[in-house]
Amino acid sequence: MSPRALIINADDLGYDPAVTRGILRAMREGVVSSATFMVNTPYSEAAAREAKGLSIGLHLNLARGAPVWPGFPREFLENGAFSEARAPTLPPDAVEAEARAQLERLAQLLGRPATHVDVHKHLHLHPNVLAGLSRAARAAGLPVRSINEPMRRELQAQALPTNGHFVGDAGTEAYWTLERFEAAVGALPASGVIELMCHPGYTPEAVKSGYSAQREVELATFLHPRAREALSRAGLTPTGFGVLTSGR
Question: CA 2, 5, 6: angle at the middle one, nearest 5?
Fold first, then answer.
């Protein structure tokens, strides 16, 4: 039986200043142990300055904002910005080049490489996006988030480190209430690397988002003393994605 490890990863660092503030508070004062960073927003540079010293991966963004790679094919953009609707038809070569460019920008902004890669809106559910991302991650030696078993098998077949289990969602209601978190921690698998995806933050102040006030519910959950108590009962100390590469 493989050892058990839990990563609590907050998506959307750099998405909005208020979201960033909430994520950083959840990491510094709460139980969130990792975050992923959107590097192509107007708020990315400030977020990078504020996140120094924390465990940060890339939140590969192919759904909003402008590409980082200058050669990104314009026919897949709308008014110079990414289109989530066009992601299913993106060529893997373009995804790979953009992922490499975003990883390079992250390293420039943070002064160190990403810890891992995941994808805004889970767009790597599309085979072409996963193919391009996988090539970029392999070149960089980075783990990739898997969100289901078919994706996990595909990444493992390419010898890419990935989490063995995944828990989390975002919808019309706040996903990580305190009660749901306590129940989930008590029911986690007995072995393997588990990623718990979350979206803590303050209500966005500059960006319109469908997941808005819900972020404050999640922030309160991960700051609450009962969250730490639940982890203690389960014998878990949240860690970062380095747990997937430390033995390589």
Answer: 145
Task: Supply the pTM of this predicted model.
Answer: 0.96
Query: 211: pLDDT confidence band, cut at 50, 70 and 90?
Result: confident
- DSSP state letter for 77: E
Q: Rounded CA gap, 88 and 109, in Å?
A: 29
Alpha-carbon distances of 195 from 4, 18, 48, 76, 144, rounded to whole Å: 11, 24, 23, 31, 11
Residue ranges per structural domain of the chain: 4-244
Pick the CATH number of 4-244 from 3.30.70.360, 2.120.10.30, 3.20.20.370, 3.90.550.10: 3.20.20.370
Q: Is the pLDDT of residue 157 over 80?
A: yes
User: Are the C-beta atoms of residues 12 and 219 closer than 8 Å to each other?
Assistant: no
Q: What are the tokens at 176? A: 């990580």
- Beta carbons within 10 angstroms of residue 246's beta carbon: 9
Alpha helices in 141-224 (DSSP H): 149-157, 178-186, 213-223
* CA 118 to the chain's CA centroid: 5
Token pair in block for residue 7: 């990563």
Give Cα 71 distance to the centre of its chain. 25
Q: Return the higher-pLDDT residue of 120 and 52.
A: 120
- What one-letter code names the amino acid at 41? T
Average pLDDT, the chain: 96
Length of the chain equals 248
Residues 145-170 have a mean pLDDT of 97
| Residue matched to tokens 């897949």 | 76
